[in-house]
């Protein structure tokens, strides 16, 4: 399952960058060859996109605290919110959907019924035999 990132927007505009946050969000929605084609056509390839974002494709962002603050102001912070943990009952319900576990539960139920049936039959046999002896 793929998680989507949540972008917390900055207060200012796009700053000194030639690419807006909306354009970057649109690029993140594209996949495969479509993304490659759009980046090549619109930005002149990855190097062109990096140039517009004022960063290096090999070294990443070589920024000072001031530049980092400007980037955060222009693009916001990229945060992936944590998913809430599943409750114990949700985990149990998911486990009960497993075919192997269902087969094992049915086998355990049959085994229990056979054990109870044989003990009940032994109990009836024992008391009927004891009545015959007297």
From TrEMBL:
Pfam families according to UniProt: Cation_ATPase_N
GO molecular function: P-type calcium transporter activity
Subcellular location: Endomembrane system
Keyword Membrane: yes
Membrane topology designation: Multi-pass membrane protein
Transmembrane intervals: 99-117
Location (main, coarse): membrane
Full protein name: Plasma membrane calcium-transporting ATPase 2
Organism: Fasciolopsis buskii
């Amino acid at each position: 399952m793929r998680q989507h990132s949540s972008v917390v927007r900055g207060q200012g505009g796009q700053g000194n960058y030639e690419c807006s946050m909306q354009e970057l969000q649109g690029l993140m929605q594209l996949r495969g060859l479509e993304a490659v084609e759009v980046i090549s056509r619109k930005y002149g390839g990855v190097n062109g996109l990096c140039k517009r974002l004022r960063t290096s494709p090999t070294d990443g962002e070589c920024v000072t605290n001031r530049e980092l603050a400007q980037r955060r102001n222009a693009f916001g912070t990229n945060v992936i919110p944590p998913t809430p943990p599943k409750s114990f009952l949700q985990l149990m319900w998911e486990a009960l959907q497993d075919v192997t576990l269902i087969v094992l539960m049915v086998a355990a139920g049959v085994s229990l019924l056979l054990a109870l049936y044989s003990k009940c039959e032994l109990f009836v046999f024992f008391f009927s035999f004891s009545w015959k002896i007297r």
